């Protein structure tokens, strides 16, 4: 219904960088909480990073902290995930999703979004390989 379109994935060598984009399709991306999630083959979908505009706070999974940066540009109706120093274990399909309101910590909202969202888009494939 409220479709988010991910793009920017691709094949990159270990240590390389990619920037993923998440854009709203036909509506304003007015979520207060927006996050990036990923799912590798044979693994559960996991939260990568989330941010809350009202709280001015961000959350990063331990596995990506210091390497990934989440940001948003309301004028462009787009959310980004800058991924640096990519590792083979980052290989996955990456998705974005959000919540309109933040009523607890951004980490908790990230978990809530992961657990309750059922309208995941097509995602964008990130492959880190030599």
Task: Give a quick rundown of the structure.
With 130 residues, this protein is mainly beta.
Features:
single chain; 4-stranded antiparallel sheet; 10 strands; 8% helix; 1 helix; 6-stranded mixed sheet; mainly beta; 130 residues
Describe the overall structure.
- The longest helix is centred in the C-terminal third of the chain and has 11 residues.
- The protein is globular.
- The strands form two sheets. The chain has a six-stranded mixed beta sheet, with helices on one face.
- By secondary structure, it is mainly beta.
- Class of secondary structure makeup: mainly beta
Largest sheet: 6 strands, mixed
The strands making up the biggest β-sheet line up spatially as 2-10-9-4-5-6
Oligomer: single chain
Rounded mean pLDDT is 92
Share of residues in strands: 35-45%
Rounded to the nearest angstrom, the radius of gyration is 14 Å
Q: How far is the first residue's CA from the last residue's CA?
A: 38 Å
| H and E order | EEEEEEEEEHE
Helix content estimate: under 10%
- Number of continuous helical runs: 1
Uncertain runs are: none
Q: How many β-strand runs?
A: 10
Q: What does the overall shape look like?
A: globular
């Amino acid at each position: 219904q409220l479709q988010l379109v991910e793009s920017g994935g691709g094949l990159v060598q270990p240590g390389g960088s990619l920037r993923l984009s998440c854009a709203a399709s036909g509506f304003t991306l007015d979520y207060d909480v927006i996050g990036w999630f990923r799912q590798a083959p044979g693994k559960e979908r996991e939260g990568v990073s989330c941010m809350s505009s009202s709280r001015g706070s961000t959350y990063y999974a331990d596995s990506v902290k210091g390497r990934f940066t989440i940001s948003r540009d309301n004028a462009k109706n787009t959310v980004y995930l800058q991924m640096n120093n990519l590792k083979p274990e980052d290989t996955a399909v990456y998705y974005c999703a959000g919540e309109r309101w933040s009523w607890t910590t951004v980490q908790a909202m990230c978990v809530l979004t992961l657990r309750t969202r059922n309208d995941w888009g097509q995602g964008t494939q990130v492959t880190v390989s030599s």
